[in-house]
């Protein structure tokens, strides 16, 4: 294996916004008892050799039989400590939160991505039924499970059951409200499996989003931007979004339901678990200020996504990069919600899983690294 081979796969998939946005997704390669896995917060699209962490495979295997406490915080702290100990000498970066899951998948290359087309399936009511019919035993559907050690252990248990029934290791591990894992022993096998999956999904899609945008300029833009700067600070980021698909959704709070909760962990991390609705009547700048204060009092942080009735969407944050990432994920959420209509309608993450992500130290670390 050459260094170039190590980085080619994640760069190709991570550099394609149809597969990965922001710091999402991860990849790994196993060779000679060593697993190279993407560092937490690294971007697949421009990753270099230093963006990987070298892990000792035997040390990772030992984690499956380790005795961890039932308490969530204590368990996650100890698992993280053991993952850090499993790094080879000289490694300083923090490995991906899904390192343990990567470790037992038998392919040389493993690539985990979050395509909007795939998440239209994973975030839908009828996704599992479609996957089982279209992909059969080549795919294993995993319901929503808290990420990290619990997810890895749950997936391994389901895979072991799948193998015990005489099946081969699945080509696809499809995570509800999350994305897909696949891989291969060559780059060509990885590509072939993704092409098959995406091709089948494209054949199933009849309803597609209208993502045409109209920029806001002039006095309206200045008023909104000034209001955001007033609330978020002089260095705050501001991005106005006006997507044709969202026009009817902005008519009322109820109509905005397709984008009013969290679809995946990445949407929570980068654009917030729910937007702030700002009604049309009255002074919208004043409503923005009051709404942000109320939101922060309830959730302990300011919203990154503002839905302004009959006007548009504002992605914001304490920097331009935070606002930009929020905007990227909002556009993705629009696509996912519409694609889900092809599979009996959208299905958001359960509230307890949203709460876990919001309070999980690992995701806070990942968001900080990316921004």
Plain-language structure description:
- It is a single chain.
- 44% of the residues lie in helices and 14% in strands.
- The chain contains 14 helices and eleven strands.
- The radius of gyration is 21 Å and the shape is globular.
- The mean pLDDT is 91.
Walk me through the topology.
Elements: H1 3-14, E1 26-31, E2 34-38, E3 52-56, H2 57-62, H3 72-85, H4 99-104, E4 109-113, H5 116-122, H6 127-135, E5 139-142, H7 149-164, E6 172-175, E7 179-184, H8 187-204, H9 219-232, E8 237-241, H10 265-271, E9 276-278, H11 284-299, E10 305-308, E11 312-317, H12 320-340, H13 351-359, H14 361-370
Parallel strand pairs: 5-6, 9-10
Antiparallel strand pairs: 1-2, 1-4, 2-3, 4-7, 6-7, 8-11, 10-11
């Amino acid at each position: 294996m050459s260094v170039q081979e190590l980085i080619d796969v994640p760069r190709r998939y991570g550099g394609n916004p149809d597969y990965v946005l922001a710091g999402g997704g991860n990849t790994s390669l196993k060779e000679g008892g060593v697993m190279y896995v993407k560092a937490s917060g690294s971007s697949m699209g421009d990753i270099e050799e230093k963006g990987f962490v070298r892990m000792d495979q035997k040390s990772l295997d030992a984690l499956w039989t380790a005795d961890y406490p039932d308490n969530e915080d204590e368990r996650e702290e100890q698992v993280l400590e053991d993952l850090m100990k499993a790094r080879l000498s000289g490694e300083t970066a923090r490995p991906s939160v899904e390192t343990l899951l990567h470790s037992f998948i038998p392919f040389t290359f493993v690539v985990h991505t979050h395509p909007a087309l795939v998440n239209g399936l994973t975030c839908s009511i009828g996704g599992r039924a479609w996957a089982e019919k279209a992909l059969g035993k080549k795919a294993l559907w995993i319901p929503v499970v808290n990420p990290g050690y619990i997810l890895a252990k749950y997936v391994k248990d389901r895979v072991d059951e799948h193998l015990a029934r005489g099946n081969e290791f699945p080509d696809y591990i499809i995570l509800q409200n999350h994305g897909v894992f696949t891989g291969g022993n060559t780059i060509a096998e990885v590509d072939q499996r993704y092409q098959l999956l995406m091709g089948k999904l494209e054949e199933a899609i009849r309803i597609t989003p209208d993502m045409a945008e109209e920029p806001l300029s002039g006095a309206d833009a200045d008023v909104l931007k000034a209001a955001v700067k007033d609330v978020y600070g002089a260095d705050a980021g501001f991005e106005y979004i006006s997507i044709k698909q969202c026009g009817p959704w902005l008519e009322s709070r109820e109509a905005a339901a397709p984008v009013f909760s969290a679809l995946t962990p990445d949407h929570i991390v980068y654009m917030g678990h729910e937007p702030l609705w700002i009604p049309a009547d009255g002074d919208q700048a004043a409503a923005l200020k009051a709404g942000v204060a109320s939101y922060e009092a309830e959730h302990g942080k300011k919203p990154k996504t503002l839905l302004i009735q009959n006007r548009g969407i504002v992605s914001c944050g304490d920097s331009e990069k935070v606002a930009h990432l929020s905007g990227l994920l909002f556009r993705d959420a629009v696509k996912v919600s519409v694609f889900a209509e092809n599979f009996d309608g959208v299905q958001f993450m359960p509230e307890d899983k949203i709460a876990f992500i919001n309070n999980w130290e690992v995701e806070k670390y990942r968001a900080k690294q990316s921004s």
